[in-house]
């Protein structure tokens, strides 16, 4: 379904004396199958968010190709079946838009009739665990979890075949993170969509993803099944897993519910 082949991306260096740009991605190749969840794991500055922008057609690669259903993602026809949910839910919704207007915007763009849009909005809100009273609310009236649910409702509104989730739960409290991950699982089952889950949180990735792709300094270190994490060969991937386990252990020590959540995720 989604094929990324030998993609590279650089950004121009700062200043007139700079001779070359900084290479952010180098020789990135992978495939995402239909109904699959691929986690892209990396530390800050690893290039994972740049890759996300390329997957959404927001930016173009310097080299290589990105195809979705055999269409170039850079072309509008290749982008229309991919949607996104970003980390910063506070800026993802226009501050002067009500929830209703925010959800209606993509539906109008994709040709939905006015008479059907209202019914669709009510349906979408129910799917993400909100009721119709939220239609008239503005972003500042929503909690973080509620705002991200609205963003998810908007992402699924046009029934895309794939959603890029760029640190979509990292700004939420731990309990809300788990609720949103559960919601994403339910929506995946309902729509049969694929996710590309970009994150630095391995626990969340393991809970949601079928495979994990570790990226470091703009290059793929390793791609492994979420069920075979103990078999990683990359030292970088092993170090990230070790750190995640240590953090999980600290959370267990500081919270009575830590063991239950750790068992669910790992």
Q: Would you kindly provide a written description of the structure presented here, covering whatever features stand out?
A:
Residues 258-266 have low confidence and may be disordered. The protein has a 6-stranded mixed sheet with strand order 6-7-8-3-9-10, with helices on both faces. It has one domain (2-54, 62-229): Rossmann fold (3-Layer(aba) Sandwich), CATH 3.40.50.300. It is globular. 40% of the residues lie in helices and 24% in strands. It has 10 helices and 10 strands. It is α/β, with parallel strands linked by helices and 266 residues long. It has helices spanning 48-55, 76-79, 89-92, 99-109, 114-127, 144-156, 174-191, 202-208, 235-254, 258-265; strands at residues 2-11, 22-32, 37-41, 63-68, 71-72, 82-86, 162-166, 194-199, 211-216, 219-225. Helix 4 runs parallel beside helix 6 (144-156) and helix 6 (144-156) runs parallel beside helix 7 (174-191). GO terms for molecular function: ATP binding. Belongs to the ABC transporter superfamily. This is Nickel transport system ATP-binding protein. Residues 2-242 form the ABC transporter domain.
